[in-house]
Specification:
Chain A: InterPro entries: MetI-like, MetI-like_sf, UgpAE/MalFG_permease. The complex is a heterodimer of chains A (294) and B (273). Chain A has 294 residues and is mainly alpha-helical. Chain A has 13 helices and 2 strands. Classes of the chains: A mainly alpha (294), B mainly alpha (273).
């Protein structure tokens, strides 16, 4: 491009910014700024009304040491197993079994995707009833002769967190499966034929062709489901509200409680910051692990 | 295994999985039809089919008002967020704005920002300017939270338009806004519809933001109202089931009408990253 045009080009690139400005301003003002502001509040003691006092790192220390707060982070990580690991495994297993596709897949896809579009509050209320003393889960257990282990699952000291996690498994497995099946349809059939010519069976076909081809889909499915596990506020709020005796507290629940019920803004903010760091660490780790190696 | 047996096995697996997804809904539909306050046990066919639970739940939770509130918020969020995301995506994908790369990164970073981090300070920030308990405040906050996905989605979409198409319009001397309106928009409706449908769903289902920003119960939305309704009537399982179905209903209708957009949006939008 000739020299005389560089100014004109600069002006054009500046005008192009005007298109981004409205989105950028709303995003910066109502999302980025409050996020930074929350990080700032995490270094203060503040009840939301009177003057704030500096807190140094004490809010962060208490996030990790307070017996009512610390476990929430572990619970969130346990939930990743149920929201992300198991659904991805189920999705991959079924993709391997179903490969080749069937007619009427659209109908199945509509069903498998359904949990993704529903408000988690309604999903939680539905499962509260399924897990109740007289609910479907216990009815099924009695029907197969396991009446001895029935209980109110979400109120059980040992099983509540697992019960909460299995709701996530129910909600996320369909998403993983739809993603993986869509990815598997793009695989070149000749690759499978090559493995078959080599004398490879279904298992080798899966590990040498299907799994590597689904790398992108696996990354995405794990990222979406992991974020859902770490930010599972709605579900915990309506099913257990953290109980019994804090066995199912999750970070979102405590951030809400500390900030808006207990007016302990500093600790709420510190927990929110720690949660954000945990999310970023997990997302980065997943991307690293599934990245294509040369 | 013969091909025929394989196909049968596939249908069997798919059907089992579909039953697992649908069974919870069968359970609450049957429960919602039991007499109000009845002791229900698991899945059981009601002896008397009671439809009045829906009307009772609607009145008791004031769903008319809650849904109106939800519709008002979504009616603000969807068009506003679509216009802003389309403008920004267009510029970032085709106009090479100053600092465009950094801006794209800033938007993408927002994809992993948990609402929990935003909401604590947002409540106090909005309180200061009188935007708590306000539809305008909720609309702007949701628009901001949904912006990273929208910009990313529209930017990807506009980047996939063949460059020759844009070049041809520019050679004709069209200004950049005319290119967007006359050339790009007419071929972009599928991408915009998908984004709009996702925006509607996210706005309708939004929970944490609404219970924090809307302290006034009359301005809350259907899912938030439902959570508090359940707290009050937790022992009346048929009534609670009916209330849940009332909240699930509208979004299921939208889902069935736009299922292709939902599935494509949530799968492709993700995969392109």
């Amino acid at each position: 491009m000739p020299d005389g045009n560089t100014t004109a080009r600069r002006v054009r690139r500046l005008t192009a910014l005007a298109y981004v400005a409205p989105a950028g301003l709303v995003y910066a003002g109502f999302a980025l700024w409050p996020a930074v502001h929350t990080a700032y509040l995490s270094f203060l003691h503040w009840d939301g009304i009177s003057a704030a006092t500096p807190a140094g790192l004490s809010n962060y220390r208490s996030v990790f040491t307070d017996p009512a707060i610390g476990p929430a982070l572990w619970h969130a990580i346990v939930l990743i197993v149920f929201f992300a690991v198991i659904p991805c495994a189920i999705g991959l297993l079924l993709t391997a079994l179903l490969q080749g596709g069937v007619r009427g897949m659209t109908g199945f896809r509509i069903v498998f995707f359904l949990p993704q579009v529903l408000p988690m509050v309604a999903v939680g209320i539905t499962w509260r009833w399924l897990y109740a003393d007289d609910g479907l889960v216990n009815q099924a257990l009695r029907a197969v002769g396991l009446g001895g282990i029935t209980r109110a699952w979400l109120g059980d000291y040992n099983f509540a967190l697992i019960a909460l996690g299995l709701i996530g498994t129910w909600a996320m497995s369909g998403l993983c499966m739809v993603l993986f099946l869509a990815g598997a349809q793009k695989i070149d059939i000749s690759l499978y034929e090559a493995v078959a010519l080599d004398g490879g069976g279904a298992v080798r076909r899966f590990f040498t062709v299907t799994l590597p081809a689904l790398r992108g889909e696996i990354t995405i499915a794990s990222v979406i489901t992991t974020i859902a596990a770490l930010a599972s506020f709605d579900l915990a709020f309506v099913t257990t509200n953290g109980g019994p005796v804090n066995r199912t507290t999750v970070p979102g629940l405590l951030v809400y409680r500390l900030a808006f019920n207990e007016s302990d803004i500093g600790r709420a903010a510190a927990l929110a910051v720690v949660l954000t760091i945990v999310v970023i660490v997990f997302v980065t780790a997943i991307r690293r692990l599934t990245r294509e190696r040369p | 295994m013969t091909p025929r047996a394989a196909t049968t096995a596939r249908y069997l697996v798919l059907t089992l999985m579909a039953v697992a997804v649908l069974l919870p809904f069968v359970s609450i539909v049957l429960t919602a039809l039991q007499p109000s306050g009845a002791q229900v046990s698991g899945i059981s066919i009601p002896t008397t089919w009671t439809w009045s639970n829906f009307a009772d739940a609607w009145r008791a939770a004031d769903f008319g008002r809650l849904m109106l509130s939800g519709v008002l918020i979504a009616a603000g969020v969807v068009p506003l967020a679509l216009v802003l995301a389309a403008l920004a995506g267009y510029s970032l994908a085709t106009l090479n704005p100053l600092g465009g790369r950094a801006l794209s990164v800033a938007f993408v970073l927002g994809l992993t920002l948990p609402i929990e981090l935003v909401v604590v300070a947002l409540y106090f920030d909005l309180q200061q300017v009188g935007l708590t308990n306000s539809y305008a405040g909720a609309i702007l906050a949701e628009t901001a939270l949904f912006m990273p996905f929208g910009v990313y989605w529209m930017q990807n979409h506009f980047a996939s338009v063949p460059a020759e198409l844009l070049e041809a319009a520019r050679v004709d001397g069209a200004r950049s806004f005319t290119v967007l309106r006359r050339v790009l928009l007419p071929i972009s409706w599928p991408a915009i519809t998908t984004l709009g449908v996702l925006y509607f769903m996210w706005s309708w289902n939004q929970f944490l933001l609404i219970i924090v920003l809307m302290q006034d119960p009359g301005r809350r939305t259907a899912p938030t109202g439902l959570a508090f309704f359940v707290g009050q009537y937790s022992t009346n399982i048929p009534l609670v089931s009916a209330a849940s179905l009332l909240v699930i209903g509208p979004i299921v209708v939208v889902y069935l009408a736009f299922q292709r957009n939902f599935v494509n949006g949530l799968t492709q939008g993700a995969v392109k990253g």
